[in-house]
Amino acid sequence: MTTDKKRLSLTGRVLLGMGLGILAGFIFRTLLADVALVHDYLVNGLLHVGGKIFIASLSMLVVPLIFVSLVCGTSSLKDLSTLGRLGGKTLAFYLATTAIAISLALLMGTLFQPGQGVDLTTASTFAAKEAPSLGEVFIGMFPTNPINSMAQGNTLQIIVFAVLFGIAVSLAGKPGERIAAFFGDVSEVIMKLVTLLMNIAPYGVFCLMAQLFTTLGLDAIVNLGEYFLVVAGTLVLHALVTYGLMLKTFTGLSPLTFLKKMEDAIMFAFSTASSNATIPVTMETTTRRMGVENRVASFTVPLGATINMDGTAIMQGVATAFIAQAFNIDLSFSDYLMVILTATLASVGTAGVPGVGLIMLAMVLNQVGLPVEGIALIIGVDRLLDMLRTAVNITGDSVVTCIVGKSEGAMDLARFNDPHSGEKEEEIRFPRRGSDTASEASASKA
Hints:
Layout: H1 2-30, H2 36-75, H3 81-112, H4 134-140, H5 146-152, H6 155-171, H7 174-197, H8 201-215, H9 218-223, H10 225-251, H11 255-272, H12 279-289, H13 294-307, H14 310-326, H15 333-349, H16 356-367, H17 379-407, H18 413-417, H19 438-445
Helix pairs in contact: 1-8, 1-11, 2-6, 2-7, 2-8, 2-13, 3-10, 3-13, 3-14, 3-15, 3-17, 4-15, 6-7, 10-14, 10-17, 11-12, 11-17, 12-13, 12-17, 13-17, 14-15, 14-16, 14-17, 15-16
């Protein structure tokens, strides 16, 4: 009971921090707009520093968590052919959900027509960065210097090196077993650090929300109100209906139980607007609270944070329809199919590129002959929508993790169905090499 109260207290404090931050932001923007001291020393000083420290504290764990967890997960595989099957399933589900997301977005954008009557005379120019080709992405997945890849935070290269290193550990016999045991202990220490850092979340969320809503004007949301509502509504629809149906169909698990266990991760994703920064919390949620084995979650979660962009795909679909309507350009059925194909493949092709959402949108617009300058119309509300997109993205990562984990027999269903699972510190355990389930790993430790 005490543990439950503590967990609910953390959740409540994060929500409180978010609400107070939004309120403070509006106060700073309206009532204290002319007070230079507030903006110079509080908004751009204390709040800025506090928000950056919160993001940095989460980002700090991303590289070691991805590497160590993947080494543990890969080295625990008895049959290495499992890795190919695991990767195939994961990639197929991620591409399928992205295709569904972009199709749903185009449907909603065409149905509600948010771009009708938009004035384009004040549209500014948007300069899109060039995205790498798919071939360049595949070449770039293999690191020439793994240490440099970790220093730069290149997620795909870290994943490839960690998988290869884990395979080598699995094949190395007795020395490999000692290395696997060491990495297993490091994994538990890292997850303990995640738990400790989550305690600063309410303060970090307050700083982020206060600073954001000090600079985010309501006029931008009002002017693009219909576009904003269509994108937000489609994101919610995809998260609740598409993911809910997938989870129920492929696993038989309760979507309501899933969403209840996702609440902390969703709030972290919303406040940070970064799938990568949320990886530690998503990993903790899928393994500790939902019972998915580390050998699955350590692969699906980092890969999903890199290439699974359902939320971004939804933005692209609605934005494509919005810009076409705003410029009075009619798109044919083949154009819509091209948008679906381009956006789905681009979710892999632009993985790891800064500003990925707008780069992908520029690629899509160019593919169907729409003016890239139209992106300037939606930049005003993109920051807030980016927060919603990130929450949807990590929800999709977790759904696919559960589906793949269940299909591989690597999920503790009792833990998933237990409303209090993952609340005890001693439950942060990853399966050691040779264990088939989380419960077996716990039994072997006992």
